[in-house]
Design brief:
With 121 residues, the protein is mostly helical. It has a domain of 70 residues: Orthogonal Bundle (Helix Hairpins).
């Protein structure tokens, strides 16, 4: 069981970035954490999430993720994606909160409430 103090509600992005930074520093992995390598690692870990749902319909994936074993496996892969994203932000000195808020503001303009994508998009 996860301690409530470790939940999203009580953990800042800065704390997670610091944990990733310390982990990388303790192992002297900084030399491997180039934008190219981190970008590739993000893509690889994302593909590992996709593998769990590859042969299932959209509806089937909604049922599959309810299975505790699959949910844990996907959770681990999602954590890997986020760890690499934090490492990329650390390496590139990108403020994640600012980047997300800026992107969401642009998305609000591009996709107003009521917008529905078409099959051609």
């Amino acid at each position: 069981m996860t301690d409530i103090s470790d939940s999203d509600t009580n953990t800042s992005i800065a704390q997670l970035r610091d944990e990733v930074h310390q982990f990388v520093q303790d192992r002297n992995w900084g030399k491997y954490h180039t934008p190219k390598n981190l970008g590739m690692s993000i893509a690889i870990e994302t593909a590992e999430i996709m593998e769990h749902f590859q042969w299932h319909s959209s509806e089937g994936s909604l049922e599959l993720i309810k299975e505790p074993e699959i949910k844990q496996l996907v959770s681990d892969e999602l954590a890997d994606v986020l760890v690499y994203c934090f490492a990329m932000a650390n390496q590139a000195e990108i403020d994640i909160s600012s980047a997300v808020r800026s992107k969401m503001a642009r998305n609000q303009e591009r996709f107003p409430v009521g917008y529905m994508p078409t099959s051609e998009e």
